[in-house]
Amino acid sequence: MLKRLEWIFFLVGPLVTLAVSPWTNYDPINLIKILICSSLAFYSLGLIISSSKKLFVYIHRKFFISIIFFVLCLLNSFLFSGAPFNQQLWGSFGRNTGLITYLSLAVIAILGNLIGSISNSKKFIDSLTITSALISFYCLIQILGLDPIGWSLKDTFATLGNINFLSAFLGLSSSALLIEIFLKRANRGKQSLYLLLLVSQVVIIYSTGSIQGLMMFVASLGLVGFLWLRSRNYFRFFKYPYLFLSGLAIYLTTIALFNKGPLANDIFQPSVIFRADYMHAGWVMTIQHPLTGVGLDSFGDWYRSARGLISTTRNDPNRIANTAHNIFLDISSNGGFPLLFAYLAIQVVVLFYALRILKYSKFPSPSVAVVLVWIVYQIQSLISINQIGVGIWGWMAVGFIVGQGMRIRNSQIENETKKIEKNYAEKRRSNSKTLVSLSPSQMLAGLTLGFVGFIFAFMPFKGDIDFKTAMNTGNLLKVIESVKKPYASAFHAEIALEQSLKGNYVDQSKILTDYLLSRYPRDFMAWRAKSVISSYTETERKEAKEKAISLDPYNPQIK
User: Fold this and answer.
1) Distances from the Cα of 12 to the Cαs of 127, 224, 444, in angstroms?
2) How far is the C-alpha of 425 from the C-alpha of 440, rounded, in Å?
3) Residue among 379, 328, 398, 326 at smallest CA distance from 64
4) DSSP state, 155?
5) pLDDT per residue over 81-103, tens digit each?
6) For the chain, first and last CA: distance in Å?
7) What pLDDT sits at residue 510?
8) Contact between 362 and 414 (Cβ < 8 Å)
């Protein structure tokens, strides 16, 4: 069974990152990724549960407890925040970081803890490197204008939806490639190939204009440089100058984000200020809803009321967001302090074992590369969202690092590390009859939960297909029929309402408005529509306007 779980673990990352469905879905990026991730994660969960007595010995207790605490806090927000259940279950359109996604990522982390070992580190890095090579090749096709897919956007974003997510993913993969280049010193051909791939990825990152990947790559360079120096005898002579220069670089980069210092022209982007607005709103939501948050993936419902006067009037009151653009603040605003503490507890356990791996592993090694992937993912977490094609690798690294670290806990030298790895392998072989082959009950458990994961993720996937099909017909009644399905999102209904208002279909506009407000009582667009649709009474329109003002109190356009 462990071998099968290994196959799932090393396939889920590439499949989730590479999968797109542009010919069938209105959202061709996220829904197919969730469908794959949820199906494989729940299938794995079934196998794990069916052999829990045999497998529990491989799971780190504190890590497992922190994951369970995280899941319980997710459920706390889901049940008690008051946000719409379907929105919390599947997430808001274009983000889809709801309950199903986070449960799947939590299972992937446990799976990584099960199979994480020094001997599997190379497989982890190879999986990421191969994926990044395919992504880079597709980027080249897009740059040359030869893309067979007729995307609505012409930017270079590969299979990740936008340039920022592409930049972040290549920032992750570049950290692993730096280690691979060191590892291939004995093979000049492979080393040159990895170097060429790294250069191409840095060029692609630069061409996107997104600073996320560049920041992650530079951070990787700094960490690799430090680890390389530490592996040399003359480290003690250069340690303090290197740390001073690194600290100076971090300081200059930080102030450059605020358009200050000598690096401001190269690093500062106006979007940084907007991200600060989104983060501020996320913290306000956390403070205002400390126990449950505003609901999973429900940031957008509360952004207008939480952003404040400065953010509202900075340029356009209609500039809104459905994420804090900071994973920690996304989690705290969605689930309150309990969910934030649970997430931090997971990361603290990982940090402990990451430091242990860096202490006892030789440089360079695949184990160190996995730790670097996790570190740069944390850096990306401070300035971006948990896009599933990128985030899947961060959560894979979370569990994998704990799995590695717990198996070298007593090692002081390389020989002891090898000895522990040998004992671990022998223990797995001794359980081959129960852990390699699958019994009928294990297969049934895996297929049953895998089917459950598939069905839950397939519902919004199918709903999105139905919506696109209805939109292509141009028949408003079919569009309305598609958005009324329980797994359709608020965004689908808003698009239908917008089309109805533009066509001056008063009756249909009223139907859609009433439907939106019955399911999404904080939907700002629906309240604004109700305030102007003539078929409502004057009193109803006045009350709707007052409600819209309460949802967006600093917006001068609705006073």
Assistant:
1) 10, 27, 21
2) 25
3) 398
4) S
5) 999 999 999 999 999 999 999 99
6) 63
7) 95
8) yes
